[in-house]
Structure formats: structure tokens, C-alpha cells
Specification:
Blueprint (H helix, E strand, L loop, with lengths): L2 E8 L2 H9 L4 E11 L2 E9 H9 L3 E7 H13 L10 H4 L4
Antiparallel strand pairs: 1-3, 1-4, 2-3
Length: 97
């Protein structure tokens, strides 16, 4: 089962809040916003099944990215970071006076 970063749109603030309250979905509350008089949006991380279920309930879902691809990209970024060796850290070896 795939997971996707998505943008979810609906017509009322209550329906937007229901995503977390009623359906216990992984939505990113800091991304919630009002786009217009009857249009609200939030981003989240959803499975194929969750996307299908919300679509059937009238939510508009836009897939932003495949979560697996994002994870691969971040893994590559981590491998580029310098390796730190605590035994070479002089600040750890100095005494506090």
C-alpha cells in the first residue's frame, strides 16, 4: 500500500476538522487554511485507501508526492552529511572550571 503527501480541499471548516477528529487521519494542522468563502485546504499523508474513501465522501484530493520517493530523497541528503566522531571532539575532553 502506497502513501502520498496530499492536499485535501473541502467546503467547510468543520469538514476539514473532521479529517482529524472523526477519521483520525495524518493531516498537518499547520497547513490548514481558508482559500475562499466555501473552500478550505489542508495537507496530509494518506494511503491509497484513505484517498479513495475521502473522495467518495466529497473531499477533493490532490496528490503532491509519493512518500516513498520523498524518503529516498531525504536518505540521499543524510548520506551527504559529514560524519562526526565524538572521540575527536575537544570540547568534550576539556574540564569545566
Amino acid at each position: 500500500m502506497g502513501y502520498y503527501t496530499v492536499r485535501i480541499r473541502t467546503s467547510t471548516w468543520d469538514r476539514l476538522r473532521d479529517l482529524q477528529r472523526l477519521y483520525d487521519l495524518d493531516v498537518f494542522s499547520k497547513t490548514a487554511k481558508r482559500l475562499g468563502e466555501h473552500q478550505f485546504e489542508i495537507e496530509g499523508l494518506l494511503s491509497n485507501e484513505q484517498i479513495e474513501n475521502l473522495s467518495k465522501k466529497g473531499y477533493k484530493i490532490e496528490i503532491i508526492a509519493d512518500a516513498k520517493e520523498i524518503a529516498k530523497g531525504r536518505g540521499k541528503e543524510i548520506h551527504r552529511l559529514p560524519v562526526l566522531h565524538p572521540e575527536n571532539d575537544q570540547s568534550r575532553n576539556s574540564e569545566v572550571k
